Amino acid sequence: MNPSEVLRIVDAIHRDKRIAKEIVFVGIEAAIATAARRQYGDEADVKIRVDRETGEITGTCNNEPIATDELAERIGAQNAKQVMIQKIREAERDAIFDENYSQISQLVSGSVDKIEGSNVIISLPGVVAILPRHERIPGESFRIGDRIRAVVTDVVKNGNRVNVMLSRIKPSFVQKLFEQEIPEIQDAIIEIKGVSREPGYRTKIAVYSSDQRVDCVGACIGMRGSRIKSVTDELNNERIDVVPWSTDLQLFIQDALKPAEVEEVILCSMLGRAIVLVKQDNRSLAIGRKGQNVRLASRLVGWDIEIMTREDLEELLEKAVEGYMLIDGVTTDIADRLVGEGFLSFDDLSIIEPDDLVQIGEISMEQAVSIIQQAEENAQKEEDFKSQPRSEYEYKENDSQ
């Protein structure tokens, strides 16, 4: 292999395979060194160098120079070629991997190439992408030739190939669809602040406009729902609630729970809990089917949300104070302060930090530790009682109430 031939090969591979020249040079050096060791022995210290400017190949074996013509004669062109092909394939794989790794969390589009078991194989430029069944929206199916959009979740090396893993159920998929469909988001006028999703059923997305003249919710929905329709069509008519984001957490929680009407939001900062008061006829709407509405709202705002009526809260407060009064060292004043901070059960009190209880109750650390320990014991007793099998009489009594 003469120097000019080496440079020609490097340049051809660089252009055809889009592999950096340095990677090709290193691959050639490694290939020749591997082939040389087959001649000189695996323990031989073989070092090969290809001049980047001239293409001249030089080498040493155990620090002794190897003549260039000896390399050609003793190493064998076929051996070097096989190793070189392998090294180039690895370099090509690594280049494809690096190129696609930067696409993680990005939206990609391709066509269905084939169906392999539960996996949909999608053809993307220069790479094979896999959409597993568990990453598909419930109920959707595809045929060969169908166009698919999805987000990249991972890129993995599989031998000499690179597999790109896709998903259509991640919240980021909805976010990327909005970014693609809404010009104001592309222009950074509207920002997506959060997404909570139960794929195939419902999504809540919080948006914010940096320009007060632009209605962030209206812009995302579009005239008569024209903009959001393209997103819901892609999601098989999954319901999407567009929520205005706000720094006012109480207002944000109210909007996140829509279409339910909220009377009051009480924030319990120590527990990261929000107690939301609604009227009785709005309670089921606020909670949603199987708890879906309140669950998605909780994820969106990042706080635990409990829905109750004002009567429910008053009853819970009274019960909590009565329960705390059974704990040695808890006075009426301390019990009132605890419920004022949102601690409404033995279970709540059992997870309070001793330092916080010292501050709330103005008591000693020893008293705080004792109170927390008693709360843990009472919480365990309540849990044990709930887990006990009930008699037929108890079932009938509860059902009749």
Question: How is the secondary structure organized here?
Answer:
Elements: H1 3-17, H2 21-40, E1 46-50, E2 57-61, E3 64-66, H3 68-75, H4 77-101, E4 107-116, E5 119-124, E6 127-131, E7 147-158, E8 161-167, H5 171-181, H6 183-186, E9 190-198, E10 202-209, H7 216-221, H8 226-234, E11 239-244, H9 249-256, E12 264-268, E13 273-277, H10 280-287, H11 292-301, E14 304-308, H12 310-324, H13 332-340, H14 346-350, H15 354-361, H16 365-387, H17 392-400
Parallel strand pairs: 6-8, 10-11, 13-14
Antiparallel strand pairs: 1-2, 2-3, 4-5, 4-7, 5-6, 7-8, 9-10, 12-13
Helix pairs in contact: 2-4, 5-8, 9-11, 12-13, 15-16
Rounded mean pLDDT score: 87
Low-confidence stretches: 395-401
Q: What is the fold-level CATH name, i.e. the topology of the largest domain?
A: N Utilization Substance Protein A, Chain:P, domain 4
Output the number of helix runs: 17
Helical content stands at 40-55%
What is the number of independent domains? 5
Assess the beta-strand content as a share of residues: 15-25%
- Spatial strand arrangement across the major sheet: 4-5-6-8-7
End-to-end span in angstroms? 93 Å
Shape-level CATH architecture of the largest domain = 2-Layer Sandwich
**Structure summary, number of beta strands:** 14
CATH homologous superfamily identity of the largest domain: NusA, N-terminal domain
Q: What does the largest sheet look like?
A: 5 strands, mixed, barrel
The top-level CATH class of the largest domain is Alpha Beta
Q: Assign an overall shape.
A: elongated
**How large is the radius of gyration?**
33 Å
Structural class by helix and strand composition = alpha+beta
Tell me the quaternary state.
Answer: single chain
